[in-house]
Amino acid sequence: MDPVVEHNTTKIPLNHQKSPSPWVIARRKFLKNKIAMIALVFLVFITVISFLAPYITTEDPAKVNIAKLMKAPSADNWLGTDNGGRDIFTRLLYGGRVSLTIGFIATLNITIIGTLIGAVAGYFGGKVDAWLMRFTDFIMVFPFLIFVIVLNAIFPKSGISALIFVISVLGWGGVARLVRSKVLSEKENDYIAAAISIGTPASKVIYKHLLPNVISTVIVQATILLASMIVFETGISFLGFGVPQTIPSWGNMISPARNPNVIQFKPWIWMPPGIVLTLTILSVNFVGEGLKDAFNPKSNR
Amino acid sequence: MLTYTLRRIAVMIPIMILLSMVVFSLAKMMPGDALSGRIDPTNSSPEYISAMKEKLGYNDPVHIQYLRWMNDILHGDFGNSFIHKMPVSQLIGLRVYNTLFLTLLALFFTYIFAFIMGMYAGKHPYTLGDNMIATYNYLGFALPSFFAGLMAIYLFALKLQWVPASGSIGTGVDVNTIAFYVSKLKHTILPALVLGMLSTAGYTQFLRNDIIESSRKDYVRTARAKGTSESIIYNKHILRNSIIPIVTFLGFDIGGLLGGAVITETIFTYPGIGSLFIDSLTNRDYSVVMTITMMLSIMTLIGNLIADLLYGVVDPRIRLD
User: Fold this and answer.
1) pLDDT tens-digit map of B69-90
2) Which residues of chain A does B30 touch, with a Cβ-Cβ cutoff of 8 Å?
3) CATH code of the domain containing A258
């Protein structure tokens, strides 16, 4: 019975084998998750073929062709043509490019703004926190859909970048709140106190110590955001207040269905973009779910 | 609780004032006369416009215009709609019942289905039924409301012809007869189902997870040890605790009662607040647009307030101070 010796013998092999980092564990778990992997592959596939659209099809997505108005699917036009005689398949690819770009960039903007504001509010606390959070509350009171539509009506013909700008400016409230609450609990840890005590500047504490520990939550939140941003863009484009009608987007492609003749007798015009959109959102959600599981140390699936 | 409520309302007032300033600025930026809707936009003669501007006080300093506008609003005067040729307040009054009927019916569906599915899935987790409900939830999360609405119209209204595809009332039906209410219900049931069934997913998932979590708690073990029957454990002990978080959602639901159906109403051409908003934008009837914007913002604010207050009411462990 010599505890010192016993302690030494168990310690030596531990030093040799480094235990996997949380990121490695998360990656392993994610790779093992079949549904999430299938969803990720599908998502990458949709993104790649959308962005390679000019190489996949030679048709013009915007040029009106009066000779081929609303033709049913055929060998020439795999998914038929729309009310402007344009090939649906071609527009599906180009539309995906627009819808996904808006989704990705808006999500990125919102995540960055929200994380920054949430982290600053949570870390500094006190007056800074109170004012930033009041501002966040204020931003979150605006009914999102209504204000984006109104702003778009005031500045018509402003295009895609203006739409992304408006969405980003109005949308970061949720992320800021989430990051703040995570930072509030994380900063109580001793390692933060240690970092501060040796004189680490605040920006470095936030960037090097706090953010790596809240980033998994932010990533999961970002997937949820991505799904809702794509739905949002298609929704307002469908209503006619989003992407300008001349540019194909999945929302714009569905909007002819507001015409009773099209919805009843020409389902090939509005169903394909709707189905692709739904499948895309579905796979974004599955990837998000997979990431959430992968980052959760309690789940052993 | 009372002091918290009062303080919470006091915090709301500056936010409401700021909000009104934002809406006012947006209205000033809008083309035409979005503040009162009294300048005829079809009359483009410069003399007429400048005369009307002078008459309505648009040449006064901005803060005076703002105060006058606020004063009008507080007296229930939201300006006129030139398309519908009537005061905006009256126009909204005509539409508001349609929207309330639709959204309340949708909310009813949401809660009923969420309770049935959530309780079943929570009681029998990881079974076939639970997996089917989970599949439904994934679809509910992923289906955009406008595509779901279009599919519902295509299937149930156009192909199967069970219900009408648009509007809120059939033609030639007398008000306040049985046929009137039947027709109204027939027109509303499909948009309400689409609206309600899609938001069911979140509630179902939440209720299921909460029931599973509760079923592992000590008080449930105690109840089992006493020999309480499973159905009483689930329907009484667990359900009472799992309803708590659901109730707080109700606040947000109330906030969304008027503005939550913009897209659905537009698809079904259902004459409510949401479709009025979109139609007014298309017709450049900006006084109506701004009034609805203001109204929906205030509804959101009130919804948040109710959610916060309910939070404290249903769970005494949460201390509000």
Assistant:
1) 888 888 888 888 878 888 888 8
2) 153-154
3) 1.10.3720.10
